[in-house]
Batch of 3 targets.
Target 1
Amino acid sequence: MSTVAVHTVKLSEGLSLPYAEAGYPGGVPVVLVHSYADTWWTFEPMLRRFPSALHGYAPSQRGHGDADRPPGGGYAPHDLAEDLVLFLDRLGLDRVVLVGGSSGCVQAGIVAGRYPDRIAGLVLLGSPASLADKPFAEEFREAAARLTDPVDRAYAERFLAGVPVEKVGRGFIETVLSESLKTPAEVWREAMLGLLDTDVDAALAGILVPTLLIWGDRDAFVPRADQERILSRVFGSRLLVYEGVGHVPYWEAPDRVLRDLTAFAASRPVVRAFERD
């Protein structure tokens, strides 16, 4: 098992992010991008299993969990994507393998499209090809618009629907819920509206880096058709289908994700160009 250490990095005045780090200094740098109203904790099952070949970093994004909430917000995927680039800069990470989970794939894809020189490879776990076209889109938009503090636990629990809890463990789910409920209603609202208003297709079309899709065939949120759509837009991308796995493979099958991630990262040329301050 790998030791998971938690640090804080200052990106700018009024914006500091906690991040978890695991693995080994000589390993390929891998940055993990969490989904809507989540935190770095969502990747804890993977981080504590990180092999010596990888060195993982998982930041909590602005407004989420214990991260700072700067004046003026900035919780749309494009804002969060720019924070990720600053995160790479502050930690001295020149080129990395970038891993998005669920809606975190949107900002990961934006970074890969805008800054291909910084991304040696992109891994998308349960990625949507679009959010605005989903049956739940308008319901989520309306519900988010009505949110007030404190955010109702039942609202947060809705985002776990369809996740096979028996494969994960109730204790971990409780931790994830507790982390998400640290996030104020403003962030839940603005992040959801930002996701629904983002042209995911356009972001995907700009990706030119090697890309691996991982999708569970029991995914209750994102259909197989979305994976085919991404494959058609991202040149050279490939898909791994996990049978019997739902929307969050990094919870349900962390060992398998790490094996596939390690194999993918091993084929990517990744270097550190400078040291962190």
Note: The chain is about 35% helix and 20% strand.
Target 2
Amino acid sequence: MLPQSGFAGFTSSSRFSSLAIVPAAILALGLAGCQPAAAAPPPSSGGQASAPFASPPVLSGTPDVATLVAKVNPSVVNITAVHDVKQRRIPFPFDFGEVFPQQGRPRERDSVTRQRALGTGFIVDANGHIATNAHVVEEADRVRVRLADKREYDAKVVGRDANLDLAVLELQGAPNKELPVASLGVSEGVRVGEYVVAIGNPFGLGHTVTMGIVSAKGRSIGASQYDDFIQTDASINPGNSGGPLFDLKGQVVGINTAINPQGKGIGFAIPIDALKEVLPQLLTTGHVARGRLGVSIQEIDPTLAKALGLDRPRGALVGDVDPGGPADKAGLRSGDVILEVDKDQIDDAQELPRVVARHAPGSRVTLKVLRNKSTQSVDITLDKLKDPVADNGDGGDSAPDAPRKGNAAPTGYGIALGDAPGGGSRVQRVQPGAPADELLAPGDVIIEVNHQAVANATETAKALQAAPKGTVLLKVKREGHTKYVAIDRN
């Protein structure tokens, strides 16, 4: 999004550029009179003079971007979203309302500040529906859409999905049969290194074309739990939000969404497959209903994989299980590793929310789970995903340390332990350079060692000392959440 005040930055530089050309132009005119007349171009072999500015043909093996843009550009639209912000203010002290107040009180007036945001979108069907980013039209009171041929229409928001940052608009009063519709491709098949073209409305300049390649896929930038961005070096700037990312077939493979302000040539686009999955719901109900499993999960690194009995890091490690939730009712446990959902493999933890979200609430799925180094199947009926609620912790782990009974016996892992309120042992200190350094932190509460519960610091120290050489697996409470930590000690 871009406030309309962004145009101001271009005025002075444009004047400077124009003025800079003038002396060179005068010099060129002055010299022109001193030059002899140019000789006529020699005739071609066919007896006809060749055109002096003939366009060369597109070289074999290079993309004909100009033809591609001419084909797809009409389906791209510019979006202006207006949001009126009302503020109450007291009038200037010398206003008559202040000098002669009614009923002894100064008269208040409403001040309306009009905020504009600029973005991009593309037409997805002949009924005048347009896809864009949800943040482009967030809290908009009015939305105006400008087509490539300069026709303008009002639009209404018919659906929003904040989790994916997607929105669908509907043009008002547009002749549907005359609308150019974008072709939606398949982002799953896009390859890293493939050429892509972005078209959008950067800085309110209107239809602007940039080209680059797909730099990476499956990027997570912390926008939501469903992050699965296409990274591209095609230039994307404020105002490009919601615009299409085309492949060389002229099909939309992504929706330009985010940029990294610290780096050049690093932009992110939502895969078009994500839009295609939720578009029917956005058109019919205006929102998206997703399935909910009811667990917290964490990534599995090589050390954890070794401790859990995996051949390599894969799957999603279950930390907490919501009491009474779908996973709890199905018997899923903390420490289980989810490897598959209905035969869809889970290669890393961030894939699990996206795979589960593809299933509707109430649907039944089968999980392939690794438990105690053996696999089993668990059938779960999904609940409806609710908006996340901030977790302030249960109070136990964030309470002050219990009175120390002195440091526990040496553990061999470079940590000092004390008894924790409610059971387990609280990490008091971590020795720099020790095996536990950067894996455990003061305040962590160890509640299990190699799947065996520990009630206090003494039990924890004994369990650590008795652990066989190699990797030990700890179950830890950190800031109210369960986390597994694997530590190597050779």
Note: Residues 1-40, 43-47, 92-102, 387-409 have pLDDT under 50 and may be disordered.
Target 3
Amino acid sequence: MRKLIAAVALLAAAGCSVSAGAGDGRRTVVVGYQSKTINTVTAGTLLRGLGYLEKRLGDGYRVEWQDYDTGAPITAKMVAGKIDIGSMGDYPLLINASRTQGVAAARTELVSVTGYNLRGGLNSVVVAPSSDVRTLAGLKGKKVSASSGSAGHGTLVQALERAGLDPATDVEVVNQQPPVGASALQSGNVQGYAQFVAWPGLLVFRDQARLVYDGSALDVPTFHGVVVRQAYAKEHPDVVQAFLQAQIDATRYLHEHPVEAAEAVAEATGLPAEVVYLYNGRDGIASFDVTMKPRLLAALDHDQKYLKSIGTDFAGVDVARFANDSYLRKAYGASYDADTASTVNAAKIDGTDEACGTAAGDPAKAGEVWLAGEDRLRPAATPACLLRQVAAATSGGRTVRAAYVPDAATGTHWFADRSVWVRDPAAGEDERFKPFTTQDGAQSYVKEHPGAEIVGYDEALKAAAGQLKAAGGASR
């Protein structure tokens, strides 16, 4: 690593470019991204598919897209001067800054955010469906797969500490790439799997895992962002401006066309569109917003002590120096400060709930139903209303591709049929059924609400069907 940094420094001192030419007179811009880390799609998969960057740069440039499973190889190539712009999660961003901050020729800057979740819901811990582990504490003495230094690893360390466990001694963390860890979980070689978007949702959707810890329980913001080599940005500010403007364009497209965006990302990555939409859709787990919010930067600073405890040869980072929003301010325009102060998800569920006849709009309660053969999702005002929609659809012979509901405590969206449901007889008719992402969350609610009980999804649907019959109608 030191030799690579020294080589890059010598090249810079000699005035040499570390970006390869295209061979046809065009300049090459090398972008490192993670296609399956779908919280970065506005700076990666979706941006590439839409061609916005190429359009912004014009004929004088060629974009070389390099795809990786994690942020680590992107950082290594940025240190070597072989990637100009990269996107990755918060923990890898800190490692990126740490690895590059000592040499001016290799130093990077955080220039924008792709997406975030203010509670930490982009990272989760899952176990095998047949596992007897029901809470994070149940992983004591077991093996957990995680990508060392990743956002998922960082969440695991913080969550174990909150649960009263020593991350260094009470569990054995096995350093594995996400697809390798997924296979290890299925084979039984590890008993837990701590990863970032979209791996936990993918495994749960495929019935290959069960959520045991929702990162939202931490209530610590997590995000992904874009870094650029500082020397490259100073030499080619027009390229950085073009990239950020293209990212803003892609973000707007995602907000205005969430289903089309999910389908496009699914086609490019092989991920199910239903999983992509869980994170990237209306009121999804990820809020897409390029602005660098103070709460996100504060969380990045907060994460440093946990990254040091992981033992990744991490030196401290001056986050205020690392984050540079000057390029973004220029690309964004006059509303930058106002939008930076806002945390409202621009892709919001709205419309009329066909089962309950009320408006859907409260992000703490609103969900959506995706029926096969439809290119739109049907809004649901509450989880109970969503159950009625699903019951009506299935009784009418329709196939439900996916139904999304917010956790009653954290607001994290999850698949309705993979959620843990609670029936609370003391609640109003449209509020009686409450979903939770984990068994732990449901049990906490039951403990605090006498008369409430955990029920199966099928039982909740049956009750919803009975309500429809009693009302003498159903949604179409």
Note: The CA atoms of residues 29 and 63 lie 5 Å apart.
